[in-house]
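ok here's ABC transporter:
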Amino acid sequence: MTTAMQETTTTRRTGATRVPGTSFAAALEAEWIKLRSVPSTRWLPLATVLSIAGVGALVDAFVAEGQRREDGAEYDAFTLVHYGVNFGQLALVAFAVLAVAGEYGAGTIRASLAAVPDRRLFAVAKLTVITAVALVTAIVSSLTCTLTARLLLPAGDISLTAAATWRTAFGQVVYLVLLAVICAGVTFVLRTPMASMGLLIPLIFLGTAALTAIPGVREVARFLPDKAGQRVMRLREFNAYELAPWPGVAVMALWAIAAVVAALTVFRRRDV
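and the structure:
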């Protein structure tokens, strides 16, 4: 009786209704089942790995020699090693967006909230599973890029014993994970895949490149998440306006935190 009264009091204080037996572990399992049962979210992580590794291998094999001659002393092999991220990240963005917006499109969001009425628990569980899948995807793609580059790039371009090699590999992992978190958070706010992709894709693939080319604007554009986060995957800066590698990661992490806070705030306050 006392326990039941305590649970009721806690529920009234937090404004959340908790179905008996609903736990974070159960919510995580439910989210994992959802991702595996939908073809798009099941195959997009694999598509991310294949596109990142595939484009990277092609660049390593056919572009490295010419790039070395063109750049001379400014040559940075790691620009080629992780070049596939520019293309493969599209699949990861789509994965994060569909993992959240898919329930709205299919009309299953109400049933999911009936099973897990605590919205914070529901959102955190979904974000956790998306982050975990993105982490595994990022690790596999980064290791594949690094090892493939060691085989295909000219001798001496990269070394598996050099700290720089693993710093940039780690940077790719961090970048992709934070990107997935940002995209998932944005989708919680916008709800539909069209609105989310319509905002994220131009911003990531077109907006930053265009803004960094405009004098007077590029000083601000360097703080955009993709521009800040990708710097850690290279040794040399492209221009004087770029952030240093780790400050860039910190800026992208702040974007991810802001996206999560916005997602939890908006999702908790609206009807669905």
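+1. The chain has one domain: 22-269.
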